[in-house]
């Protein structure tokens, strides 16, 4: 599950490209990124399903931020990011969230 961060010189933001490989999501039909940056909205950031079965999404986020997030797969299960900076337990979800420092 590679993440690419491209810091923009013209703005205080960065473009973050999230990618889930086919083996990470099996035969998923849809995946959304849900987190602190979108108020945990399960519909706001759907990922694009590619022909090879991977899912990708690029979003612009503020430099210097720390975001908590998870992947929501087929509205049924949750995945964490393998390349997260760390994982932090969330009492509300009773699960770890992925943490990414920008």
List the helices and strands and how they pair.
Layout (H helix, E strand, L loop, with lengths): L2 E5 L5 E8 L1 H4 L5 E5 L12 E2 L5 E8 L3 E8 L3 E3 L6 E5 L4 E7 L1
Detailed description of the structure:
With 102 residues, this protein is mainly β. 4% of the residues lie in helices and 50% in strands. It has a single domain (3-101), classed as Immunoglobulins (Immunoglobulin-like, Sandwich), CATH 2.60.40. The chain contains one helix and nine strands; from the N terminus they run ββαβββββββ. The strands form two sheets. Strands 3, 6, 7, 8 and 9 form a five-stranded antiparallel β-sheet that branches. Strands 1-2-5-4 form a four-stranded antiparallel β-sheet. The longest helix is centred in the first third of the chain and has 4 residues, at 22-25. The mean pLDDT is 91.
- Measured between the Cα atoms of the first and last residue, the distance is 17 Å
**What is the fold-level CATH name, i.e. the topology?**
Immunoglobulin-like
- Can you summarize the main beta sheet? 5 strands, antiparallel
| β-strand amount | over 45%
Short description:
With 102 residues, the chain is mostly beta strands. It contains 1 helix and 9 strands; from the N terminus they run E-E-H-E-E-E-E-E-E-E. 4% of the residues lie in helices and 50% in strands.
What labels would you give this structure?
50% strand; globular; Immunoglobulin-like; 102 residues; single chain; mainly beta; 1 helix; five-stranded antiparallel β-sheet
């Amino acid at each position: 599950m590679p993440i690419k961060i491209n810091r923009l010189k013209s703005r205080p933001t960065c473009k973050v490209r999230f990618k889930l490989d086919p083996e990470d999501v099996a035969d998923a039909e849809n995946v959304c990124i849900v987190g602190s940056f979108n108020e945990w909205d399960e519909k706001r950031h759907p990922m694009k399903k590619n022909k090879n079965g991977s899912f990708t999404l690029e979003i612009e986020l503020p430099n210097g931020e720390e975001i908590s997030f998870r992947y929501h797969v087929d509205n049924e299960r949750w995945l964490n990011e393998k390349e997260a900076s760390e994982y932090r337990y969330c009492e509300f979800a009773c699960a770890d969230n992925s943490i990414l420092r920008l």
